[in-house]
Amino acid sequence: MANDYLVIIDMQNDFVDGSLGTPEACAIAPAVIEKARIFDGTVVFTLDTHGSNYASTQEGQHLPVTHCIKGTAGWHLIPELEEVRQARNARVFEKPTFGSTELAQWLVERNQEDPITSLEFIGVCTDICVVSNALMVKAFLPEVPVRVDASCCAGVTPQAHDAALATMSSCQVEIING
């Protein structure tokens, strides 16, 4: 029996149509929502999560756009995905940085209990948090097939999206719908 996982990265209001939103993120939202609804397996979410001290952090100094402050409207999943999360009682990983070691370790534990047959990553931003998490999980679980659905990802720019897909492909992450 298949034991597939779908990891939805940072589909939060601030990244879709908020302070760091892009037309590309808005464009992929319907496909991400549909995939989350129909996925035959375990769905988990990550949330980029910052505190009120964001501006004084390393990230805040390099990206001086306040976003995903815990508890604000921008921090929450887009409404349609929040509905999916609730309906599935899906696990959520809050992460203060690009990649989530907690997610990777949790997947290692799940794999030890019941071998994972595939891991698929979708969401935003392809060139920051998607690539960070996909490659980290690939390092933690090198024998588990990891794939990224390019049609359900958006980067900071289309060029950065394409570059991240190429990097992941070079590291044996399968790129589908690219």
UniProtKB/TrEMBL annotation:
<dbReference type="InterPro" id="IPR036380">
    <property type="entry name" value="Isochorismatase-like_sf"/>
</dbReference>
<dbReference type="Pfam" id="PF00857">
    <property type="entry name" value="Isochorismatase"/>
</dbReference>
<dbReference type="InterPro" id="IPR050272">
    <property type="entry name" value="Isochorismatase-like_hydrls"/>
</dbReference>
<dbReference type="GO" id="GO:0016787">
    <property type="term" value="F:hydrolase activity"/>
</dbReference>
<keyword id="KW-0378">Hydrolase</keyword>
<dbReference type="InterPro" id="IPR000868">
    <property type="entry name" value="Isochorismatase-like_dom"/>
</dbReference>
<protein>
    <submittedName>
        <fullName>Cysteine hydrolase</fullName>
    </submittedName>
</protein>
<feature type="domain" description="Isochorismatase-like">
    <location>
        <begin position="6"/>
        <end position="176"/>
    </location>
</feature>
